[in-house]
Amino acid sequence: MADELGDALILDTPVREINQDERGVTVWGDGIEVSAERVVIAIPPTLAGHKSHYEPLLADRSACT
């Protein structure tokens, strides 16, 4: 997947906030702001702790099997 994304893939940049609305998703990190249709979160939110803010809040999936 990384090869297909090419320069659109940003690595080693902590994400601080993710907002989603009817226009898509905006991601803010250290020195970046990116707008996109979709975002892949590659770390479980519980491991991210309080370092990232999600708007709207992520659904509670703890009851899912």
Structure explained in plain terms:
A hairpin with a 2-residue loop joins strand 1 and strand 2. Helix content is 12%, strand content 32%. Mean pLDDT is 79; it is low at 61-65. The protein has a domain at 13-55. The chain has 65 residues and is mainly β.
Helical content stands at: 10-25%
pLDDT average, as an integer? 79
Largest sheet: 4 strands, mixed
SS content category: mainly beta
Shape: globular
In brief, what are we looking at here?
The protein has helices at residues 2-5, 45-48, and strands at residues 15-21, 24-29, 32-36, 53-55. It is mostly beta strands.
Keywords:
about 60 residues, mainly beta, disordered C terminus
Topology of helices and strands:
Blueprint: H1 2-5, E1 15-21, E2 24-29, E3 32-36, H2 45-48, E4 53-55
Parallel strand pairs: 1-4
Antiparallel strand pairs: 1-2, 2-3
